[in-house]
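Appendix B. Raw example, untouched.
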Amino acid sequence: ENPNTLLLDAGDIFQGTPFFNFYGGELEFKLMSKLKYDAATLGNHDFDNGIDGLYSQLPNADFDFLISNYDFSDTVMNGHTSPYKVFVKDGVKIGVFGIGIELKGLVTDKLYKETKYLDPVEVTQDMTRILKEEMKCDIVICLSHLGYEYKNEDKISDIKLARATENIDLIIGGHTHTFLERPTIEMNKAGKKVLVNQVGCYGVYLGRIDFYLDNDNNIESKGASISV
């Protein structure tokens, strides 16, 4: 309907389906490329075939992998992801960055090898500063695989990330398979609104967020969940 659209994914593209077990992710990446995905972040299940299995499928993906708190310096994935990307749609600058969950305890060490996990809040503060202040983005979107919310007070989640940081307009979340009918509105540490959205799992729903900007780039937004 709208040419000024970004199609984004919050990780766990790979899952234990017969298609993945047989094709090793080739099918998912090729289909997402045909659907013209703009960017995705990485989830813990994207390491199911190990970091080498993920790397081997990259030629099948015609979209960017954005992850800012995994340090791949000492792995085969070094240089094959970006911390963020800036898109321009109808003159509006949209900064997108990715945040991943801690792999230790979720994924066997030998599968993610020397991947280093960096603190999501600290990295987010860096990313939002770069995107908002240096790159002058009008909208900042975080692709998060942290999970929506946890009872464990110490565990970082999308809700906690929204409250602890500033300059994020929208968090698109994954991992906890949370079905939200519409985005949650949280207040960031500067007292401004952050949309937090997640539409479950398995491609059952597509989340749609519309941003409306006036001449002064003031943002209004609305969200919906579309049944696929």
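End of appendix B.
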